[in-house]
Amino acid sequence: MTVFTLNTGAKIPAIGLGTWKSEPGQVGEAVKAAIEAGYRHIDGAYAYENEKEIGETLSKLFSSKTIKRSDLFYTSKLWNTFHDPKDVEKGLNETLNNLGLEYLDLYLMHWPVAFKPGTSEVVDVDYVETWKAMEKLVQTGKVKAIGVSNFDIPHLERLLSSTSIIPAVNQVELHPYLPQPSLLAFTKKHNILLTAYSPLGSGGSPSLLSDSTITEIAKKHAKDPGQVLVGWAVQRGTAVIPKSVNPKRIKSNLDIAVLDNEDLKRIESVTTRKRFVDPKSFWGVDVFDGFGEETK
Ligand code: NDP
Fold first, then answer.
1. Residues that bind substrate, according to the entry (predicted)?
2. Which of 126, 143, 189, 248 falls 20 to 30 Å from 7 in CA-CA distance?
3. Domains in the chain, please, with CATH?
4. Is residue 253 lining ligand 1, measured as CB closer than 6 Å?
5. How far apart are the C-alpha atoms of 119 and 126, rounded to whole Å?
6. H/E element holding 225?
7. Quick one: 64 exposed, middle or buried, by C-beta within 10 A (0-12, 13-18, 19+)?
8. Pick the catalytic residue: 48, 74, 107, 127?
9. Does the interface predicted TM-score (ipTM) exceed 0.95?
């Protein structure tokens, strides 16, 4: 399995298991199936409301010696309701309590958007101040690295010019319909690892998995479209976190296609600037303005 090195020096397995919309009752089994299939990187978040069940599963996997804590890379995310600097450590503690873990390998600011505690009402807390509070978490030992999610270039530029820790990771929507080449170039230049979320086009939107270019390339390599999409992400130098609760798909998403230059060129041509995750539709906030060309 490909492993990337973060700007902290820590190693992160390129492919992790996504857990958004992995329902309670399913998510524990999914995490178990993933670890048994060889995953050593799990992507979670407070907002996914399934951390308790993941924690129970991890605890069993640790006690049965299926996996050691130190062999697992676990990511979680600070939810928007904890952005006030005085609430940041509380947000982390809730996640650690839910998971039953002493530390996270990576803690991301989920969105550059703050909510009034307990609501989804947008409030004016500057994400730079939230980041400064996250920087302090590193000294507690409860997070090994910190990063961001859903940040575009102007957001990152502000952090780089006014704070002291460079984010280890920026996790964003990334797939052949939204390849974000300028953000990828920017993050590579600044030694920030980009992680691709919704790499298969997310749930309920099968258009990417059934795209004729993707399915033809899959056929050529005797792989399925998921294996082409995950392989494409890894070959671009991004971490990637496909979600599945199906043991067969969890396993197959690790067995990625190795693409040649012709495949990569063909995939470049399928770009439609199609976004599957758009908070504007649920919060009325357009945090993606700065993505410019990529949103057209
Ligand atoms: P994905 O692009 O990973 O797609 C998941 C969907 O594809 C599910 O319906 C899954 O169904 C299905 N699927 C999985 N594998 C295959 C396969 N090989 N062939 C066909 N279908 C397949 O969507 P997500 O939006 O969930 O993104 C992945 C992860 O990224 C999330 O789970 C989360 O961890 C993270 N994320 C982060 C966000 C952020 O704001 N930081 C936002 C969105 C996602 P099934 O389970 O039945 O296999």
1. 110
2. 126
3. 13-268 (3.20.20.100)
4. yes
5. 17
6. helix 225-235
7. exposed
8. 48
9. yes
